[in-house]
Prior knowledge:
Layout lengths: L5 H7 L2 H6 E7 L5 H6 L9 E6 L2 E5 L5 E4 L4 E10 L9 H15 L6 E3 L3 E4 L2 E12 L5 E10 L4 H9 L8 H5 L5 H22 L5 H6 L6 E6 L4 E9 L5 E5 L4 E4 L3 E8 L4
Parallel strand pairs: 1-2
Antiparallel strand pairs: 2-5, 3-4, 5-9, 6-7, 7-8, 8-9, 10-11, 10-14, 11-12, 12-13
Helix pairs in contact: 1-7, 4-7
Amino acid sequence: MTSLDRDAIHARLGEITAGRLERMEAFEEIESTNSYLMAQEAPSPGLIRIALTDNQVAGRGRHGRVWQSPPGSGIALSAGYTFAEQPADLAALTLAAGLGVVGALGSIGIPGVQLKWPNDLIADNGKLGGILTETRPLPGGAIMVVTGLGLNLRLDQQVVSELASEGARPVVDLAGFAGELPCRNELTARLIEGLCATFLEFEVSGFSCYMERWAEIDWLRGRSLEVETPASRLRGTGAGIGADGALLVVTESGEVSRITSGTIVMAGEPEGVA
């Protein structure tokens, strides 16, 4: 049985989010909350649909990577929304959603989470979670988006050790980072509110209104990087993001490169940090 109570979560939603909620489903087990919503009928414009679980058995990250959520170890939550017209900077929605999640965590007394372009939540220099946005064009120029969040709550230490032995970036969980695990239903309600607010704000203002907030918690800024893109691999220093959400990297030759699609394969300490 899932530890997430749909009715209890709904009761904790604010008036604006509750009024925008078209449907919310909580699953004892599901392959992927993102895949489930992507296969459903698109939400009515301006309304959101939610699928969530604490037992996701075939979640996906970027480039089809597996994102597992063993029973009780985390929250897998996906939010579906329909934009009546496709935003010009839709590719940056994942970044905006990350800010919504960080804000939600802060609202329940968990500050200090940072964002690593394009989709990782970072705490204590380890991966706390990840975000994936998928899209589906609709007739008349509308577009359906599904933004999924995987958040580590309390990980089995054997899993953490196995990942470390494989050379993966350290993973952290909310229980360890915050020192105490918040009420799961309250946490989930705040996360839903954060994603809902992101959709509504993004539809009106696009990504430009998020630039300043991103700069405040940009984990890559000032770090030496190695980035693998579809065309090449480059080295340089993180220099923030562009107005369209592209990663900016100052290369070894001093030029500024814009990365719209790529994978960070190495990130060092910020400049000036031993």
